[in-house]
Design goal:
Elements (H helix, E strand, L loop, with lengths): L1 H11 L2 H18 L2 H18 L2 H13 L6 H17 L3 H17 L3 H15 L6 H18 L2 H17 L3 H17 L3 H18 L2 H17 L3 H17 L3 H17 L3 H17 L3 H15 L6 H17 L3 H13 L7 H10 L14
Helix pairs in contact: 1-2, 2-3, 3-4, 3-5, 5-6, 5-7, 6-7, 7-8, 7-9, 8-9, 9-10, 9-11, 10-11, 11-12, 12-13, 13-14, 13-15, 14-15, 15-16, 16-17, 17-18
């Protein structure tokens, strides 16, 4: 009972109630020695911890659950993979999330379990919508899922799919269609009192209006979303809105306000160990500092942003972009030594997907103090 209640509270955005129920659920399921539901409850606890910013503890629990799965126990493994994909989404590790969804779907398909196939596909759409080369597939699967959910009235799945499709059409600059899907998602969230998803969809609707050029309309939506995120204690969404407002105030020439909102976002995101949010907020702050004629400070902040992007495997290219841009800023500001230190650091980080051509270009612009032994033949 507690396990099912925690799912209901999570759906409605009642985070504190969900935490109490999942802890009670684990207590009773352990006593009952119900392996299947205990493993599922542990994964739910991991997701709960991610939302609270306890990433290390959450990943340890998830690793423990999967380490205890017996080889060939696909029935037990498949639903846990779906939950694992949700954890990856919260960590902005969308490629890993997509792989987990795909494996889950294949198991459910093999076992002819329709509900499992549907749930894994929903998460797969959410992941693929965030990966540039797979957006068309996300659109195709999303539209098909939308047809299925209309027939079965599964509003929670419909909201997730609508949100993904709105994001896809926004990136395609098909704003009328993006607004149509976004509005439908918001209406469902309000109808069924899904607090956290209502805020997320409001933010996405504001993004559509902003990109369409309706700045005032977007600002009103962001303000509404901010009020609700504070009221519902949705720290991650609150931080997301702050970094958007930082960007908007910079564009409007309100540089001090831009810095203030960036700092609020950085604080929120760091408290939650939300690396993607921290990286974005730091990048916004760096861009504003450049306009305030503080290039050295801007470069320092940009490097920190790059380090946070580098913690997320999918965003290794943004790590390189930020470090490369910081090198350019240092060089233009007369910080040649610091520029070369960063080039060496970039090259030493062989675990990342480095664009060698771009790095070589940076080296040729800054040859004198580059010390990496790999570069001796280039100097």
């Amino acid at each position: 009972m507690y396990y099912h209640l925690c799912n209901v509270h999570n759906l409605l955005g009642n985070r504190d109630e969900a935490t109490v129920c999942i802890d009670k659920s684990l207590e009773y399921l352990k006593l009952a020695k119900n392996k299947k539901f205990y493993g599922a409850a542990l994964m739910f606890k991991a997701m709960n911890l991610i939302e609270q910013g306890n990433v290390s503890e959450a990943t340890k629990i998830a690793d423990k659950v999967f380490a205890n799965i017996k080889k060939g126990d696909k029935e037990f493994k498949a639903p846990l993979l779906v939950n694992l994909s949700k954890i990856y989404v919260d960590l902005s590790e969308f490629e890993k999330g997509a792989k987990a969804c795909k494996e889950a779907f294949e198991i459910f398909e093999e076992r002819n379990e329709t509900e499992g196939m549907k749930n894994s596909l929903v998460n797969l759409v959410s992941c693929l919508a965030q990966i540039n080369e797979y957006k068309n597939e996300a659109e195709k699967y999303g539209l098909r899922l939308l047809e299925i959910t209309k027939q079965s009235s599964e509003f929670s799945i419909e909201v997730i799919v609508l949100n993904s499709l709105a994001s896809i059409y926004r990136e395609k600059k098909d704003y009328p269609k993006a607004k149509e899907f976004s509005n439908r998602a918001i209406e469902l969230c309000q109808q069924f009192e899904m607090k956290d998803k209502a805020v997320l969809n409001l933010i996405n609707f504001g993004n559509i209006l902003r990109e369409e050029g309706d700045i005032e309309g977007a600002k009103k939506i962001y303000d509404e979303a901010l009020i609700k995120s504070i009221e519902y204690n949705l720290k991650k969404d609150e931080g997301r809105i702050y970094w958007i407002l930082s960007s908007m105030h910079r564009e409007a020439g309100n540089l001090d306000l831009s810095i203030q909102f960036a700092d609020k976002s950085i604080k929120n995101s760091k408290e939650l160990n939300f690396h993607y949010g921290t990286a974005n907020a730091l990048r916004e702050k760096s861009d504003t500092l450049l306009l305030m004629n503080e290039p050295i400070r801007a470069a320092e902040i940009l490097v920190e942003s790059g380090e946070f992007f580098g913690k997320i495997e999918q965003f290794s290219e943004l790590y390189q972009y930020n470090i490369s841009k910081a090198i350019e800023i240092y060089r233009n500001a007369g910080g040649k030594v610091k520029a070369n230190e960063l080039i060496n650091k970039l090259l030493a980080n062989t675990a990342r997907k480095i664009d060698v051509e771009e790095v070589v270009s940076l080296i040729l612009d800054n040859p004198s103090e580059c010390t990496n032994p790999l570069l001796l033949g280039l100097n």
